[in-house]
């Protein structure tokens, strides 16, 4: 999928969703091109899990296609971004086409969770000598001509102090266009992450939604409702025109029902919204798999509506697990 905004008759900023879960692979790889530079963010992809309703052979075929797309796009790029060291966000190979002669912006390898620290060390050792430069990018900004690339301070991969650690979000600006890619914030769940997104005043946000595939009964999950409120709050931003909503939710064929409040809010606000596949006019792979092969893990479920979301919050507040202000936020931001 490519979206182009003109600036004096030339593309100011294009983005291409190269590999995402809605295409049938674990990934959030995005190519961004301006007249000054081409940047590939999180060039990687992995197989989906056991609950994904496509046969293994088809999943492997899709993975090969998307990894090839990431590598092909990266060959013509000046810069590569690795927001964190999960294996669906970077390719470990010593690949000159992918890393040779590139400026490599990476999540700082200091103070990582043990698994990511080991991966980072192995990866950086493996590609040693290939990139033009390897730059820890947390909280920093860089210029390529009239294009600015900004990286957030580290934000939680989900909730604060969650086991997966932290990631950096990427913002690219050129002319009037601003695109922000969240990478792996899981919703977002945390209010501080939402504030950083809003402060960037993006026209386009590529948002990784809540990992609903980890849920049992959604009624018991406060973080899902928090993520819905926060996604809807971002949709209300005056500068925002487009939100690509992908990655974690698209591993779960229930996502249209569990995230229906976000879809409804986007529709009411007139924002361009959907998964990478949906915005490209395609059916998300997980829904195609469910249609063609039937259910896997989940046999029955109900849509999450506004009343049910409110009951989840009221119960959490009564148990002193949530701030009462969440009820006000629900009424303010969610349709």
UniProtKB/TrEMBL annotation:
Domain of life: Bacteria
Database matches in Gene3D superfamilies: Ribonuclease Z/Hydroxyacylglutathione hydrolase-like
Residue stretches making up the Metallo-beta-lactamase domain: 26-213
InterPro entries linked to this entry: Metallo-B-lactamas, RibonucZ/Hydroxyglut_hydro, UPF0173_UPF0282_UlaG_hydrolase, UPF0282_hydrls
Protein's name according to its UniProt entry: Metallo-beta-lactamase domain-containing protein
Organism annotation: candidate division WOR-3 bacterium
Lineage of producing organism: Bacteria, Bacteria division WOR-3
